[in-house]
Amino acid sequence: MVKYKLHKKGIKADIYSMIDDRGKNIFEEFLSRLQTGDKKKVEALIMFLLVKGSIVNDQKYRIIKGSDVVELKAKKQRILTHRIETNSKYKYIILSGFQKPAKKIQTRYINSAKVFSNEIIAGNTLEVQEGKNE
User: Fold this and answer.
1) In the chain, how many H helices and how many E strands?
2) How far apart are CA 91 and CA 114, in angstroms?
3) Domain that holds residue 124
4) What is the rounded CA–CA span in Å between residue 126 and residue 93?
5) What is the pTM for the complete model shown?
6) How many independent structural domains does the chain possess?
7) Residue of 51, 70, 48 lying closest to 118 (CA atoms)
8) Contact (Cβ atoms closer than 8 angstroms) between residue 53 and residue 39
9) Helix (H, G, I), strand (E, B), or coil: what is residue 86?
10) Which secondary structure element, helix H or strand E, spans residue 97, and what is its range?
11) pLDDT-above-70 percentage for the chain
């Protein structure tokens, strides 16, 4: 189970961090693994998301792996995805809850990180759900 903690001061003010049921702060661990230049990218992106849409009570980042299968569906509650290139071997995606009018788009599966990153580069607004690898 993931709980949320509201930050009241600093660069993360008004941002909810994810804390799992073992008390581990997932967002803090994520930031601590990044190099200084990458931290600035993340902080700038968070500030952008605070202006453009709410990021509260939602997953804020995930690591994209080659085995990921992502299902895309049209729903009223959209998730706006942002790719962050870091100096590490991982690419991080920050996800934010973002209200947009529902559009009918074809449901499709993305079975590789490359295809997924191409969707992000194209500027598509996607709903992201982890699917089963079939």
Assistant:
1) 3, 8
2) 11
3) 2-130
4) 12
5) 0.28
6) 1
7) 70
8) no
9) coil
10) strand 91-99
11) 0
